[in-house]
Specification:
5-stranded antiparallel β-sheet, 6-stranded antiparallel β-sheet, 3 domains, Heat Shock Protein 90, Beta-Lactamase, about 45% helix, alpha+beta, single chain, about 500 residues
């Protein structure tokens, strides 16, 4: 017989269990009923006083997918000794909530040793199970992410706050030669771009701002310089400046550039083909002058007629027209050649514009179109940019070619090149034409690769996208001014490129 003090102690014990989301239960085989204390009733979302339940009623509260497991576990308890191993099942409460319960069970025997029931303790482990599942899911996602990063053809890596690499994927090691714990990441950039990295990129990272752009990577193992589109950003792990690391990804641009260069050359050849007739005519005129003046000089000298002043005048005219032909040929060669591997050198910005005009002047003259250069105060042929001259010339040719196409049928069409000094260490070149403003739908897309409004066979659609990329590689900008009354493109170029 249980004493009143024992009953009180049991009640207190059950109250504590209920508060801890635990409870006691007893299954009586003789009546096939299950007695549940207040803690178990609370776990199942059942009202107080609803115990006992029939085994069938309790079975209905087990999650359908775990009912077989529940049956097997009870069979296991019956076959076991005094205790059976802990088991977990899902239940569906009266409100439809799914909970995970862990159970510890033992047999109940009568005086002759016959098993007459089971009893046990159950407690809520939902949070623990869900946390474990989330961790396993996170671990799986992390492993998948690492597998993708390691199998990627792009560079991935991160460094500590000082810029020393802490991790790099296989491509970063094999292609770009990055070594863990060795060198600063800026030392894996070619020397011509290192100053820009130190002066522009690193200050942005320290201000928790990202950066992306094209640079030349340097593989210290192969000594190879590789064009790469690099994306770098800082990641804060805590409140202080020391709680930070830098992550980066990069795409090898060699294959893309090979395809791009092939298309650029096709575009150049197409443009030169369109201008061939005008250029031939423009070369033919000075050639005729040279031929006529040469014949006249020959006749005078043969007859012994020597007029020194006249001879000097004719020779000067021959020299002038020879230089004219030389300029035309030089401009044609400059626009047609592949300048990707050319070193950066100091080039006169006015000279590049002059060469562009040499290519187009005859086309404009033939249609009686006006091509004008406006030069700001204080600018002359000594104003230099550090650039690949042929690439900048290509940009000017693309812009002027587009302007020519826009106005070629206008009776009084015009194009203006305006060169001025801009804010900071920059020149600004405005290319304005008398054509109508570009519709917004086209303006929004025209800088995208392969976008073109020209009919098939009249262009590749590479002009503006390639031009924009070239200017950005020179640390400048190319943009369309949608607020201008006419079609207006603006190019900015640094007076000196960091190298």
């Amino acid at each position: 017989m249980i004493s009143s003090s024992d009953t009180l102690l049991l009640k207190k014990y059950q109250t504590v269990l209920a508060e801890a989301d635990m409870g006691l239960w007893e299954w009586d085989f003789s009546t096939n009923s299950v007695h549940l204390d207040d803690g178990i009733l609370k776990l199942y979302g059942l009202p107080p006083g609803s115990s006992p339940l029939t085994a069938a009623q309790l079975f209905e509260l087990i999650h359908p997918e775990d009912r077989r497991l529940y049956f097997d576990k009870n069979e296991e308890v019956s076959a076991a000794g005094e205790f059976a191993p802990d088991s977990s099942i899902r239940i569906v409460t009266s409100t439809g909530q799914i909970k995970y319960l862990r159970n510890r069970s033992r047999q109940i025997r009568n005086t002759d040793g016959t098993v007459i029931g089971h009893m046990g303790l159950s407690w809520d482990v939902t949070s623990e199970v869900l946390l474990k599942e989330e961790k396993e899911k996170t671990d799986w996602q992390f492993q998948l992410m690492i597998s993708l990063i390691e199998s990627s053809t792009d560079l991935f890596g991160f460094s500590d706050k000082s810029g020393v690499p802490l991790y790099v994927n296989q491509v970063g090691h094999d292609v770009f030669g990055v070594q863990i714990g060795q060198k600063y990441f800026a030392e894996y950039v070619a020397k011509k771009d290192q100053k820009y990295i130190y002066e522009v990129v690193i200050p942005r990272l320290r201000a928790n701002k990202g950066w992306e752009g094209e640079v030349l990577a340097f593989n210290p193992m192969t000594k190879e310089e590789i064009p790469i589109w690099l994306r770098i950003f800082s990641v804060k792990l805590g409140p202080t400046h020391s709680d930070i690391f830098y992550a980066c990804s990069g795409s090898d641009l060699r294959k893309l550039k090979a395809i791009q260069n092939s298309l650029i050359m096709q575009s150049k050849m197409a443009a030169l083909g369109e201008m061939a007739a005008e250029m031939a005519h423009e070369i033919n005129n000075p050639l005729m002058i040279i031929q006529v003046k040469s014949q006249m000089l020959h006749e005078r000298l043969t007859k012994g007629v020597v007029d020194a002043a006249k001879i000097i005048s004719d020779l000067q005219l021959i020299e002038k027209n020879s230089h004219r032909i030389q300029k035309i040929v030089h401009s044609s060669k400059a626009i047609s050649r592949n300048a990707e591997l050319d070193p950066y050198s100091q080039v006169s910005i006015l000279t590049l514009i002059d060469e562009t005009f040499e290519i187009f002047q005859e086309r404009f003259n033939k249609r009686k179109l006006k091509l004008e250069l406006i030069v700001g105060d204080g600018i002359n042929y000594n104003d230099m940019i550090e650039a690949r001259g042929s690439e900048i010339l290509q940009v000017f040719v693309n812009l002027l070619n587009n302007a020519y196409d826009a106005i070629r049928h206008q009776p009084e069409g015009w194009v203006q090149f305006e060169l001025s000094k801009a804010v900071g260490n920059f020149y600004e070149i405005q290319v304005v034409d008398s054509g109508v403003k570009i519709p917004k739908g086209i303006a929004d897309k025209m800088m995208e690769p392969f976008f073109t409004t020209k009919p098939t066979g009249q262009g590749t659609g590479l002009g503006l996208s390639i031009s924009k990329q070239i200017i950005e590689n020179h640390r400048g900008q190319l943009f369309y001014d949608s607020n201008a009354p006419h079609t207006r493109f603006v190019v900015t170029l640094q007076k000196k490129i960091n190298a």
